[in-house]
Amino acid sequence: MAVIKNVAIAGASGNIGPHVLKALLEANFNVTVLTRSQASKDYGAKVKVVEADFNSVNSLTAALENQDAVISTIGKSGSEKQRLLIDAAVTAGVYRFVPSEFGSCTTSPKVADLPFYSTLATVRNYLIEKAASSALTYSIVAPGCFMEYLLAFPAAIDFKNHSVAFIDGGNTRVSVTSLATFARAVAAVFDHSDETENRVVYVSEAILSQRQLLELARNVNPEIQWTIRDIKSADILKAGLDAIASGGDGLQAYGNILLATVFGEAYSSAYDTNDNSLLGVEVITEERLKALVADRLDQTVRPNTPN
C-alpha cells in the first residue's frame, strides 16, 4: 500500500478547507498549506505555509516538492485553475490528488453540460487523463449535500418562515454529510490509498428528503403551522439557466441550478452504496437529526429574543 504522510491543501482558508486541515492534523499528517500570501492567515505551529503563484505551474511545482498528496478545496471562482495544480502535482511526483468536487450528483452524465457542473467535469476529465499517463492517482470524494448547508438553505426548507416548497413532490432522497465527518473521511481516504485509488469515494452520513425534514420539524414542535407548496425541478432549472443566459444574478442562478439537480427526481443524489465502512463513517441517528433541526428552529427565534 502506498503510504501518504505529507499532504498539501489548496484553499485552506475557505469554507471547507479549515475542516479538512483540522481533520488532517488530528490524523497526524504533515500538512502544508498553499497560499497566495503567507501573511494572510496564521494556521498554527504544526502547519507549514508555502506561498505560491496559482497561475504558474513552476511555482506550484516547487511548492509541492516532497508532497505525497494534494487536496484542493478551492471555491467555484478558481475551480478551473485546478488544472495547473494537477500539472504541478504530476511534475512534482505527487501520488494522490483530490479535486474540489464535493457534492451530490456532480459525476452524473445528466449534469455534465450544465453551468458549474461543466467546469467540474472539465477538471475531472483532465485529472483522469493525467492519471492515465503518469504516476499520479486520484480520489473524487462525494459527500452528498453538506448538512450545515442543507439546514441553512431556505430553498430546501425554510425554518425561519415555516414554509417549504416541495420539489418534484419532496420525496427525492439526498445523501447528507456534515463538514466535520466529510473532513475525517478525506483523512481516511489517504489512510486507505489503495482502496480509494482512481475512483469516486462515496460518503453518506444520512439520506434525507424534504418531506423527512419537515416531519422531523413537526416532531420537534407540533404546534408550528407550515406553509406548503409544490414546484417542479424543471422550472427551477430553467429559471437558473435563463438568468445566466441573460446575464442576471449569478449567485441566485447557480443556486437554482444546484437546487434543481440535488432535489430533482431525475438525478441520483442518494448513495445507498457507499464507502462509510471503509472510512469509518457512522450513520447519524434520528435523535441527532432531531437535535439539529431543533437547533435550526431555535435559531430562527433567538435573534428576536430580548436581552
Structural overview:
- With 307 residues, the protein is of the alpha/beta class.
- The chain folds into 2 domains: 6-143 and 178-202, 3-Layer(aba) Sandwich (Rossmann fold), CATH 3.40.50; 147-174 and 206-270 and 280-302.
- 39% of the residues lie in helices and 17% in strands.
- It has helices spanning 17-26, 57-63, 82-92, 117-132, 147-152, 179-191, 210-220, 233-245, 250-263, 276-279, 286-299; strands spanning 6-10, 30-35, 48-51, 69-72, 96-98, 137-142, 145-146, 163-167, 174-177, 199-202, 206-208, 227-231.
- It has a 7-stranded parallel β-sheet with strand order 3-2-1-4-5-6-10, with helices on both faces. Strands 7-9-11 form a 3-stranded mixed β-sheet.
- Strand 4, helix 3 (82-92) and strand 5 (96-98) form a beta-alpha-beta unit.
- Helix 8 runs antiparallel to helix 9.
- The chain starts with 5 loop residues before the first strand and ends in an 8-residue tail after the last helix.
- Residues 5-217 form the NmrA-like domain.
- Keywords: NADP, Oxidoreductase.
- One of its GO terms (molecular function) is oxidoreductase activity.
- Pfam families: NmrA.
Blueprint of the fold:
Layout: E1 6-10, H1 17-26, E2 30-35, E3 48-51, H2 57-63, E4 69-72, H3 82-92, E5 96-98, H4 117-132, E6 137-142, E7 145-146, H5 147-152, E8 163-167, E9 174-177, H6 179-191, E10 199-202, E11 206-208, H7 210-220, E12 227-231, H8 233-245, H9 250-263, H10 276-279, H11 286-299
Parallel strand pairs: 1-2, 1-4, 2-3, 4-5, 5-6, 6-10, 7-9, 8-12
Antiparallel strand pairs: 9-11
Helix pairs in contact: 1-6, 2-3, 3-4, 7-11, 8-9
